[in-house]
Structure formats: structure tokens, C-alpha cells
């Protein structure tokens, strides 16, 4: 954890100096010892810095102690997990988790080269230094999840939790809907496809001739928002995580060669594979999207009308038809059910949906299926769909009768936090925890903010 947090600290330069006026006096110190493990002040500072930056709130000593508490909790959990011989974290799992996190960091800072420049080490060296820190983190998480799975809540506990709130303080929910849909994308016109291929070919010619670098052309022309700023670079990625059309080219193209333009559902690409190791590839690509405004929707509309007629005339389950015929993979796999991509909730706020959805839903009664209509999907793509209104809950004050599932989740979340905190405090009693430096000073000022073991003398 120590070295991993150092990387995070380096990614937010200047933030800690702005937050902590004492930086000029003390750059680092040991602030806690948990068993045989040290926690440095820089670790706590880095952990807290990310939180402050994300939440956009000012530094406080109490928040610093809370960050220290979380780091102590992780080390206590890891220590107990090591004592539990039934918990084993394989090297493969550690390697996978570490690679995924490094991929995220590389995307944030602009690629592998930039990350190596920031830290002054090669990716191989970073992996070697961070591997055991990740193992500790995974041990702690596994041990904690075992406890979480044991915590349940009964209907009577849900009711008791809800009834503690005065009726006039309960929030009013807006109109909520549950929806299922079947999606078809209009096929781009041949003219639009040809234009995209011509642009990609011209870009490739400029790169191959040496007039421009791949990275420069990606920054100028690529329409992939996730990689354009990094020169089209996407670090180690599994072939299985790529769409089949892209994976087929990436698997066979010689290392360092620039591919001919090829098409995927996202548009037209050119690709350069930098490194291939097993099923992992490191590559740069440039995406030119096909102009959707030139697409002909008639085929998609006719297809959806036929699907709707089959459902209504032959009583075929909507979910079955969605799995067979919807081109939106995420909802098709769930029988067409639409969920909030941020929360996974099925209840969607009607007023928050795109106007194209609202116009379609306004014509439906619960259980009805719309005719094909144009829509801006939740991922921003334009398509046509038929929609079934599965549920409509008008604006109302929260109640157990209409919102039991939502209330149950909130009550369970509160119970889990309470039980976990009590459990963690008990676990701390069997691990020697000593505070020092800034931690000791703040713990004496805020004696109720931190729990140490009875085994240690502070």
C-alpha cells in the first residue's frame, strides 16, 4: 500500500502543500505501527488527498484521522486474513488486479511512458514493488466481504429503521419508471462509410510516409475520447475485452505495422500493435466515426415493427425477443431491462431521461409496447427502439408500501456500517497498534476519533 499510495500522491502534485501548512517542517514520519507494519504520514496524506480532490472539500485534522483509521483497518483486516488459513490469494489474481489498476493510472496520466516518467521506474519495476501491497489489499477485502455476506436485515428491522424518521421529513420522489426495450442501429449509408474509410486512409498514408507520427495524428483526428489525448495509446488489454472485429485484426497484425483501415460497430480504425504478450496487447489506434446523420433508418424501423408484431400476435416473451434481436448488448443480456448505468437501479427518474425517451413513454400505459421510435441511448449513441413500460410510480412521499426495496437497501447499508465498525474495533484488540508523531498528537486532541488495541501503550 505504501508505494501504491506514493504513486497516487505523485498524480496530484501540489495538493498536499496547499492543504498542509506544516509541510515545510516535516516531509514524512512514521505515524502508526500495526503489528509489524508501518504507516507513514505520506501514506495518509496521499490517501486523503485523493478524497479531498474528488469531493472538493477542504482539509481538516478530523478527516486526516479518518483516513488514518481506514489505513489501520486495512492492515488489521490483512493481518487477520493471514491468520485465516482458508483465505488464499493466488499470484494470478494479484497480477490481474495490479495490471487493471496500472492500466487505469496509465489512461489517467497519458500512457505507460508518462507513468514511468512520473515514477522514474519501468512498468516491470513498478509491478514488482506494488505486488505485495496489492496482495495485502486483496486479503483485507476478502476477509471483510466474508463478514459483509453474513449481515442480513429482517422486515421488522427495516420498518423500525424507517419509522425513526418523522413523516414530514421524508423526501418526495419524482415520477419513476421501469422500462425494457429492444434496440436496432440504423445502417450507415454507403457514402458515409466510404467517407470514413477515405479519411482513415489519408491519415494512414501520412503516417506511413513519415510526414506525421501515429501519436500526433491520433491527437488531431481520432474520435475515441478515451484515448485520443494519449496519442491513441491503450495499454495492456485482453483480446477478449475487444469487439470481435477489432480483436481479429489486433491478433494477427505484425508488431509495429500500421493496419489498413477496418470497420467495427464504433466506426473505422487504423491500428498499431506495440507489444503482444499472450492474450494481452499494448496498442495505439485512431477511430473515425461514420456520420450517423446519413444513416437510413427504414430497415431498423421495419425490423422493430416485425419484432413488435411477433410479441403481440404470438405472445412471445419480450425478454426472449430482446435477447435474440436487440443490438444493445448490455440490455439485451438482461432481457431488455434498462438500468441506470451509474447505480444499477431499475427505477429511473422520468424527467432525467432524454426527451426522445420521454415522448415515447408519454404514449404508453403500463405493460404496453411502443411503436419504433428514435432515441438517444444512455451511452449517447442514436438508435431506434421499441419500449415496454414495465412500471410507473407517480411522484410521492417515500413510503414502505411503494419503496420497500429502496428503503431495505438503505437500512441494510446502515446496519452493515454499524456492525462492521463494531467488528473492526473488536479485531483491533488482538493486533498491537501504536501511534506516533502527528497521529498521536491528533488522537490526544480527538480521543473519540481513533481506536487502538489494549495490547499497546500509546
Automatic annotation (TrEMBL):
Pfam families: Rotamase (PF00639), SurA_N (PF09312). PROSITE patterns: PPIC_PPIASE_2. Residues 174-275, 278-391 form the PpiC domain. The keyword Isomerase applies. InterPro entries: OMP_Chaperone_SurA, PPIase_dom_sf, PPIase_PpiC, SurA_N, Trigger_fact/SurA_dom_sf. GO terms for molecular function: peptidyl-prolyl cis-trans isomerase activity. Gene3D superfamilies: 3.10.50.40, Porin chaperone SurA, peptide-binding domain. It comes from the Bacteria. Residues 1-18 form the signal peptide. Keywords: Chaperone, Isomerase, Periplasm, Rotamase, Signal. This is PpiC-type peptidyl-prolyl cis-trans isomerase. It comes from Rhodothermus marinus (strain ATCC 43812 / DSM 4252 / R-10) (Rhodothermus obamensis).
